[in-house]
Amino acid sequence: EAGVAQSPRYKIIEKRQSVAFWCNPISGHATLYWYQQILGQGPKLLIQFQNNGVVDDSQLPKDRFSAERLKGVDSTLKIQPAKLEDSAVYLCASSLDGSIVFTSTDTQYFGPGTRLTVL
Amino acid sequence: RKEVEQDPGPFNVPEGATVAFNCTYSNSASQSFFWYRQDCRKEPKLLMSVYSSGNEDGRFTAQLNRASQYISLLIRDSKLSDSATYLCVVNRREYGNKLVFGAGTILRVKS
Which of A42, A44, B9, B63 has the CB geometry, 3.0–4.6 Å to B106, for a possible disulfide? Predict the structure, then answer.
């Protein structure tokens, strides 16, 4: 079974520029998550989608970050404009169904991440 | 205070040693608990779930104490390949399936 795909793997930009990341979840997974992992910290959830609807975006800095999952499959995360403190690894994860009481189907599978450096 | 707290380490141990990691969580509404493993510059991967009765998977044993809001991971007979960062994770269901990660504990197993 193919895993979660992300691109690009690495991105270097200057502050105030824009950047976009792409994620393709495991086939059939209804729930998609974007996490930000700053060096030395654990991943922090930015946004969770259930199909193409947003379940939780309480920790997404909405003044500069946006995300969409228009057809309930692929997703993009955008930062505009980027700040130095946005340097991090952006991880996408998916699960079969994250909307129900926990079962094994809630296991989240992570993609390889996009390493963003803002200069 | 962070919602999930771990000793960052690093724990430097020889091969064959037994090592234990601890984790505390602050939100009593947390419902599910996990240990994830993250290799250097790789994505996190689920190592094991943690149950109140305690559970074992080969050389790994996980324990949960809900009253104390404390989770542990014990690794016996450490291997070089166990070197990684171990992330303590709790699941809160306020808005669906939300995982809250600790900052991780670094383990280095040396020959």
Answer: B9
Say if CB A21 and CB A66 are below 8 A apart.
Answer: no
| Nearest chain B alpha carbon to A31 | B97
Residue B95 pLDDT grade (very low, low, confident, very high; cuts 50, 70, 90) = low
Mean pLDDT, each 10-residue run in order, chain A (119 residues): 92 98 95 96 94 91 95 95 98 82 69 97
Name which of B45, B46, B91 is nearest A102 (Cβ-Cβ): B91
Residues 45 through 104 of chain A touching chain B, CB cutoff 8 Å: 45, 48, 50, 55-56, 58, 91, 95, 98-99, 101-102
Test mutation, B21, B36, B97, chain A, max A CBs within 10 A: B97
d(CA B49, CA A99): 19
CB contact under 8 A, B97 and A102: yes
